[in-house]
Amino acid sequence: MVTLALLQIKNFSFSYPRSAQPALQGINISVEKGEFIGITGPTGAGKSTLTYCLNGIIPHFQGGSCQGRISLGGASIFDRSPAQISRLVGSVFQDPEAQIISPEVEQELAFGPENLGFPPAEIEQRIGKALELAGIPGLRNRPTVNLSGGEKQRVAIAAALAMLPEILVLDEPTSELDPVGTDEIFQVLNLLNKEHGMTIIMVEQKTEQLAAYADRILVFNEGRIALEGEPRQVFARRRELEQIGVRIPQVARLAGLLGGYERCTLPLTVEEGHLYLESILRR
Amino acid sequence: MQRKARIKVEKLTYHYGSGQPVLKNISFETGKGECIALIGQNGAGKTTLAKHFNGLHRPSSGKVYIDGIDTTSTKVSELARKVGFVFQNPDHQIFHDTVAREVAFGLRNLRLSRREIEERTAAALEAVGLTEHCRTYPFNLSKGQRQRIALASVLAMQTETIVLDEPTTGQDFRESVQIMEIVRKLNENGHTIIFITHDMSLVARYARRVLVLCRGEILADGDVRSVFAAPEILKKTYLRPPQITNLARCLGRHSIPPDVLGVRELYELLVKMRSEKIGCCS
Amino acid sequence: MAAVAEYISRNSPIHRLNPLTKMIWALSILGVGLLFNDYRYLLALLASVLLVAAAAGVLRSLLPAAAGLTVFALILLLIQALFYGQGQVLFYLVPVSNRLAVTGPGLLSGIAMAARMMALVLSFLIFLATTRTRDIVLTLVEKLKVPYDYAFMFMTALRFIPAFFSEVRQVSEAQQARAYAVEGWNPVKKIRAYAPVAVPLVLLSLNKADQLAMAMETRGYSGGLRTCLREAKMGVADYGLSVLLALLLVGSAAARLAGYGLM
């Protein structure tokens, strides 16, 4: 049986107006329903541009020229209106301060469904569900100003979930957060993905956590996909990653130096590293 | 001769308006040439404390001395000659149309001669690797490059102490390393460095002394190894030592010390162990 | 100052009123305040406004704002007292040379103006402190038929006021740290001093507006047909109070025409 991928990007290239260098070149990605895709790479590699192509910012908000095809749920994304895309793709951006629109949490979650013209009873239901999924039912009646960074980003995630999207696209959502906030975000995303089958595409610099949670990692460099695969395969490519400028999880780097691990079992977390070193030391 | 403390904080307490104290009874000194990391979760008071080092905040009670000068009676623009401060977001300060002019801004405020301004600007741009961009419009550069402009504009002022508030937040790995390598060089050239960060691997790699803040109080103050070897203290302010330190702690029964800071270090320890093992068996 | 114009969460009867009722109340204070110029009437009006603040449990939170207003009120009082000119001289501000006379009627008229100004401003602040922004927007859109885009602009402006002030502070601190002296009173310097603070602020705000627009776009904001989660309901108390306020306004106008409340 052939399963159709939820998101299919084929030979896709994109250039910003007045720019000689294409921002994205020959991108091919296929994402199945329920996958957690991590995207990393240096600044200017085209990661954010790709998220803009997925959530309709390009071409509706920002111009440019593109080639190739992006299809979501079987139809081309460029044939859809921004409102249609907003139902399919939930978006979370980098700056918690700049993406929260409303003074209150409930209103922030209602904003999207209200724009789509749903009846109040349905909006109510979506808000309750989204707050629960993001683990913040207690924040419902709070003003958004004095939430912590991690709370603000979870509100942003909940607001995206209230649109009941097919896929969640996050562009460096933890870059402004402290370790507590970062953990909060990864835990929520992990739960969404594992328990509720949400498809997630996350651009992220914090590779230690990304390696622990993502099913697949894409490393972008200069507008192209430089490396792709399961975290263990990708982080085994030490030389290429160092050359591109991607941080390798410390445990993986140590294992890379020591060698002696089986193929496809590169340790990524402290626990895995511990088991691996015990086996090495026993030899 | 006694070593002169660059920054001396005595029983500092600070609160905004009439609210709860944000900093409680903080005392410490920095010596010349130290490299100190200030860590703690958001809201612990790191930035508030740092802003006392150049007079942006004045203690509600207690004293802060910079080179023996009491900050309460000195203007911020005066203290700027003693302590440079690099803020988290470079876009909060950049407003000139070229990189060189931006870097010269502080020097013009110090009313230096034109020649001196030009020389210092050129030297600062060289130090951060932006010489070729001296005539570029700052906003045509990347965020990481803009952070280096902000850093250059502070180090051109040739202050003894440089404070950096989360200099690598929002930067990619390579940019972070670039900035921290510049910081390392500044420290080697005799500058006292105090930096705030959430990235424990940067602390392990670049700092020698760590101040841990938690809810406005100093939880720990010591060299990096001793602080990271006591994760239960860090846990109180929701911080974790770097992955590699945590891994080393699991290997106690193989007589690996619990205060390993870097991948290289653990690697060399393990290689040495292996060769010793082979040595004793043969 | 960040607390001014911010919603203060309480569970008071005032908070539970419909925003429209509170708008009518603030407008009635404006109307009554402008009708009379007898200081006794205006002091009574101010007292009534403070009573409402106390009933809403926001009096304490409004104190800093009220203290700021008092400074303005005193200046107003002084100007009015000095330049009124007529009536019996009570005392001289510069006693030796008999300069700057303060007359009895001047002082009373000064008090009247100060009380009026404080009543009007405080009533508006009480309205904002007791009404959630979302309910104001709702009332504007549903009851007063203001187009959603404008109501939304109003709401967003309120939402970003605190963030804006914190950015002003951060930018000016960043420049001070580069030996930039914002201190001092020279007005020419003050005006030239704006560039280092204003330019980054404008750029930051443009950037923020851009990001906000992207966030809105990805949440389906397109000017199509829109629904509202909440409804702006008028209760019995709302209708009752609105009628009472209308009667008060009509009564005041009649009293004024009959010659009451004038000095």
Structure summary:
By secondary structure, chain A is an alpha/beta fold.
Please tell me about this protein's structure.
The complex is a heterotrimer of chains A (283), B (282) and C (263). Chain A has helices at residues 47-55, 57-60, 82-88, 96-99, 105-115, 120-133, 149-161, 179-196, 207-213, 231-234, 238-244, 250-258, 270-282, and strands at 7-15, 24-31, 36-40, 65-72, 75-76, 89-92, 167-171, 199-203, 216-221, 224-229. With 283 residues, chain A is of the alpha/beta class. Chain A is globular. Chain B has 282 residues and is an alpha/beta fold. Among the domains of chain B are: 1-82 and 164-172 and 192-238, 3-Layer(aba) Sandwich (Rossmann fold); 242-282, no CATH class. Chain B is built from eleven helices and ten strands. Chain B has helices at 46-50, 76-79, 99-109, 114-127, 143-155, 173-188, 200-206, 224-228, 231-236, 243-249, 263-281; strands spanning 7-14, 23-30, 35-39, 61-66, 69-70, 83-86, 161-165, 192-196, 209-214, 217-223. In chain B, the strands form two sheets. Chain B has a six-stranded mixed sheet. Chain B has a four-stranded antiparallel sheet with strand order 2-1-4-5, with no helix packed on it. In chain B, strand 7 (161-165), helix 6 and strand 8 form a beta-alpha-beta unit. The model of chain B has no long low-confidence stretch (mean pLDDT 92). Chain C has 263 residues and is mainly α. Chain C has helices spanning 13-16, 19-35, 39-56, 59-83, 104-130, 133-142, 148-176, 187-192, 194-217, 236-257, and strands spanning 89-94, 99-103. In chain C, strand 1 (89-94) and strand 2 (99-103) form a beta hairpin. In chain C, helix 2 (19-35) packs antiparallel against helix 5 (104-130) and helix 4 runs antiparallel to helix 5. Chains in contact: A-B, A-C, B-C.
